[in-house]
Task: inverse folding
C-alpha cells in the first residue's frame, strides 16, 4: 500500500509528539487511514536539533532548514504547519495550497486572523485545510461542531479554552494568592510563557473562540470584532467574594447567536460553582455547547502538550488520507456550512450583549447609600439578584458592597455604573464582572 507523504514544518514539542505517536501507533493508524502515513521531510530553523530528533525516531526522513523547499516538494502530499504565528506561516500555507497540497495546522492565530483568505484559496485549489489541533489541543471539538452536531441549531458555546489562565485562576482561588504571585510561580513551573501576554490577556482564547464561532454559526472568521478582556487585572478579593456567593471565576470564551448578530467575547466570568465547567481545574480545557436538539454537551481534556496536540494533528492526517481522493464538494466544508451558505452575520458590539453582572464597590457607611444605588439600578431597569454588605473593618467607616444582577444589557449596566460612581458616597471605581448562569 503506497504511503501518503507528509512534510512537517517545525519540529518543536508538538512535532516531536506527532513523530512519537505516529510511530508508536503506526499499525492502528494505518488500519484506520487505509494506508501508511509517513513523514518524509522536516523543516526547522534549528537544523541540528531537528536532525537529532528525527534520526532517533525516523531515520529515513530528511531534515532541511528551508521550509519553502517542503511546500514546493513534489513528493509531499500533506503539509503539517506547526510553526505558529501569522507571518511566515501564512506565506507557507498559501504556497502549499497554491501547489495543490493539503494542509494540517495547529495554528489558531493564523486561522482566526487569515482563515477567510486561506479557506478561499484552498477551495479554489480543491485542497483540504484541517485544524483540529488549533482549538483545545487534544479535545475533538472541531469534529464535534463540524460533524457530530450538524443536526443542531447551535445556540451558544462557552469554553475554558486556555490552560495557562485556568491554572492561574485555580491557584489564585485555592491558595488565596494574587495574580502576580501565581503568574510568577506558573512561569517557574513552565505553565506560563516568559511573555505571557497572549494567554493572560485572553488573545489566545479569542483566536480559538473565533474559530469555534465561525464553524458553529456558519459565519466568516471575525477575530477583529471580538471583545477581549484577560485576567491580569483580576483581584483575588473578587474570587473570594464570588465563592461566598456560590460562584467561581473562569476565563470564558462565549459566543452566542442572537437575532441581530453574534456575541463573541472572552472575559473573566462568574459561573455557578455547581456547574461542571466551574469544576474544571488546572491547565485543563472544557467546552460547553448548547444545541437546540441535543441540549448541552461538554467536551473536556488536555488543551496543550506534545501528545494531546499530536493526537489532534494525526486525526486530521487520517481524515485527509481517507478523503483526499474524494471530490472536493463531497468533503466536510471548512466552516461546517457549504461555502455559498456562509452568512455575514455581524459580531455585536459589547454594549449590545446581555449578561448578569457582579458589581463590587466601596461606600461610606451612611444612611441612604444603598437606597441611592438601588434606585439607579431600578432606573436602568436592572433587577438585583443578590447583595452582601461587608461590615466595615475596625476603625473604618467604609464598607464593601457586592451586588449580583439579573440579566440586563451591557449598555444599561454601563450607564448605571457611571451614575453610581458619581455618587459622593461611593469611593473610587467599581469592579464589574460578567456572570453567566450557563443554562
Ligand atoms: N497557551 C495555550 C494554553 C495552549 O495555555 O492553553 C496553546 O494554545
Result:
Amino acid at each position: 500500500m503506497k504511503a501518503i507523504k507528509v512534510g512537517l514544518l517545525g519540529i518543536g514539542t508538538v512535532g516531536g509528539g506527532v513523530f512519537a505517536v505516529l510511530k508508536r501507533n503506526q499499525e492502528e493508524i494505518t488500519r484506520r487511514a487505509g494506508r501508511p502515513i509517513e513523514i518524509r521531510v522536516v523543516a526547522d530553523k534549528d537544523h541540528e536539533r531537528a536532525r537529532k530528533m528525527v534520526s532517533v525516531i525516523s531515520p529515513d526522513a530528511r531534515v532541511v532548514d528551508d521550509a519553502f523547499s517542503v511546500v514546493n516538494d513534489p513528493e509531499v502530499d500533506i503539509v503539517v504547519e506547526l510553526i505558529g504565528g501569522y507571518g511566515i506561516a501564512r506565506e507557507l500555507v498559501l504556497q502549499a495550497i497554491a501547489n495543490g497540497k493539503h494542509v494540517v495546522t495547529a495554528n489558531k492565530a493564523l486561522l482566526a486572523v487569515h482563515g477567510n483568505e486561506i479557506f478561499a484559496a484552498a477551495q479554489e485549489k480543491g485542497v483540504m485545510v484541517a485544524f483540529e489541533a488549533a482549538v483545545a489541543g487534544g479535545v475533538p471539538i472541531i469534529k464535534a461542531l463540524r460533524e457530530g452536531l450538524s443536526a443542531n441549531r447551535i445556540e451558544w458555546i462557552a469554553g475554558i479554552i486556555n490552560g495557562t489562565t485556568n491554572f492561574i485562576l485555580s491557584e489564585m482561588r485555592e491558595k488565596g494568592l494574587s495574580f502576580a504571585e501565581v503568574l510568577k510561580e506558573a512561569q517557574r513551573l513552565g505553565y506560563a510563557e516568559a511573555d505571557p501576554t497572549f494567554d493572560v490577556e485572553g488573545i489566545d482564547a479569542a483566536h480559538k473562540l473565533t474559530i469555534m464561532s465561525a464553524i458553529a454559526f456558519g459565519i466568516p472568521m471575525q477575530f477583529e470584532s471580538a471583545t477581549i478582556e484577560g485576567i491580569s487585572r483580576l483581584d483575588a478579593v473578587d474570587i473570594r467574594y464570588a465563592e461566598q456567593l456560590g460562584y467561581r471565576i473562569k476565563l470564558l470564551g462565549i459566543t452566542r447567536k442572537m437575532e441581530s448578530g453574534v456575541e463573541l467575547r472572552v472575559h473573566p466570568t462568574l459561573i455557578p460553582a455547581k456547574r461542571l465547567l466551574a469544576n474544571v481545574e488546572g491547565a485543563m480545557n472544557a467546552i460547553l455547547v448548547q444545541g437546540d436538539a441535543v441540549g448541552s454537551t461538554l467536551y473536556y481534556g488536555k488543551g496543550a502538550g506534545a501528545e494531546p496536540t499530536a493526537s489532534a494533528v494525526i486525526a486530521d492526517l487520517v481524515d485527509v488520507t481517507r478523503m483526499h481522493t474524494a471530490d472536493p464538494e463531497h468533503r466536510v466544508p471548512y466552516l461546517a456550512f457549504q461555502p455559498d451558505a456562509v452568512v455575514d452575520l455581524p459580531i455585536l458590539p459589547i454594549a449590545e450583549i446581555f449578561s448578569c453582572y457582579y458589581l463590587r464597590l466601596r461606600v461610606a457607611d451612611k444612611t441612604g447609600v444603598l437606597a441611592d444605588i438601588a434606585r439607579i439600578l431600578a432606573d436602568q431597569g436592572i433587577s438585583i439578584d443578590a447583595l452582601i454588605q461587608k461590615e466595615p473593618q475596625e476603625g473604618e467607616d467604609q464598607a464593601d458592597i457586592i451586588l449580583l444582577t439579573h440579566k440586563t444589557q451591557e449598555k444599561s449596566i454601563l450607564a448605571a455604573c457611571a451614575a453610581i460612581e458619581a455618587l459622593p458616597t461611593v469611593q473610587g471605581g467599581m469592579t464589574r464582572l460578567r456572570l453567566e448562569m450557563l443554562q
